[in-house]
Amino acid sequence: MADRVLALMARYHEESGLPFDDAHRAMVAGPLLDGSPLGAIWLIGPARAPLGYVTVTFGWSVPHGGLVGWLEEVFIRPSVRGRGIGTEVLHAVTVNLQRAQLQAMHVILPNDDAGLARFCTRTGFRPVPSPRMMTDPL
């Protein structure tokens, strides 16, 4: 399974112009594929020829009162996009995570990706008034 996930991640990263290499992908996906409680990766479709994948990481939120998820990556092969697969899969993921006591799911969108914003809106995400996110890369 790991080889299929890593191959799909490579396609997503290339398509998105992300600078990640095979070593980085293996480092971040390995623990999640090995069952880390900090996140999960789901293959979409048949295991032999998956249509894509979803990666969610988890954290704790005081404002939301518990466990929250971060939608890190969603990738659907270009040849099967536009058929509702991503919407259906993301809905199933969020329903099941809600049953596991997830309080909210977050996603950070690039400012210039209107298509991704429409997809997220279709799957239940709403814009929230919030301060600008900042990061301290440790």
Describe the structure.
This protein has 138 residues and is of the alpha+beta class. The protein is built from 4 helices and 4 strands. Strands 1-2-3-4 form a 4-stranded mixed β-sheet, with helices on both faces. Strand 3 (66-76), helix 3 and strand 4 (104-106) form a beta-alpha-beta unit. Helix 1 (2-16) packs across helix 2. The protein is globular. The mean pLDDT is 93.
Structure in a nutshell:
By secondary structure, this protein is α+β, with helices and mostly antiparallel strands. It has four helices and four strands; from the N terminus they run H-H-E-E-E-H-E-H. The longest helix has 15 residues, at 2-16.
**Unreliable parts:** none
Shape call: globular
Question: Biggest sheet: strands, sense, closure?
Answer: 4 strands, mixed
Terminus-to-terminus distance: 31 Å
Number of helices: 4
Order of secondary-structure elements: HHEEEHEH
How many whole angstroms does the radius of gyration measure?
15 Å
How many β strands by DSSP? 4
Into which percent range does the helicity of residues fall?
A: 25-40%
Walk across the major sheet and give the strand order: 1-2-3-4
**Percent strand:** 15-25%
Quick check: average pLDDT? Answer: 93
Instruction: Write down the oligomeric state.
Output: single chain
Helix/strand/pairing category:
alpha+beta
